[in-house]
Specification:
flat; single chain; 123 residues; mainly alpha
């Protein structure tokens, strides 16, 4: 047999072996679904669902920005005085902090605009 065919066969078998338990657990009710976390299908109005989705996305992006800042700090601490590595770490830190500021500004703008629209509609 061809080596490439054997590699594909092993990869496919491994994927099936790892994913087969998920098919068995498909009917288990864990009490919450992703839709319930966002307020979908629970009687929550559209505004509340949209706010929950935006908060979730911005929280996820904020987490990524914090990880980038931590990675830049780790790069700087392990640079051992190498100017190229310090410059790279400094640019990573700057990019992470700019991203964090943009995410916080997006959250503030979104929160303000949604509150303004809701207060104008309900009055």
């Amino acid at each position: 047999m061809n080596k490439q065919f054997i590699k594909r066969l092993v990869a496919t078998g491994s994927a099936v072996a790892l994913l087969a338990p998920l098919a068995v657990l498909a009917q288990v009710d864990y009490g919450t679904t992703l839709g319930e976390q966002f307020g979908l299908g629970t009687g929550t109005d559209v505004k509340g669902a949209i706010i929950n989705i935006i908060k979730f996305l911005l929280t996820f992006l904020g987490l990524i920005a914090v990880i980038i800042v931590l990675y830049g700090g780790f790069q700087w601490m392990t640079a051992a005085g190498n100017e190229e590595k310090i410059t790279s770490a400094r640019s990573t830190l700057t990019a992470g902090l700019i991203g964090l500021v943009i995410i916080l500004a997006a959250y503030a703008i979104t929160s303000f605009s949604i509150q303004t629209v809701v207060s104008e509609v309900t009055n």
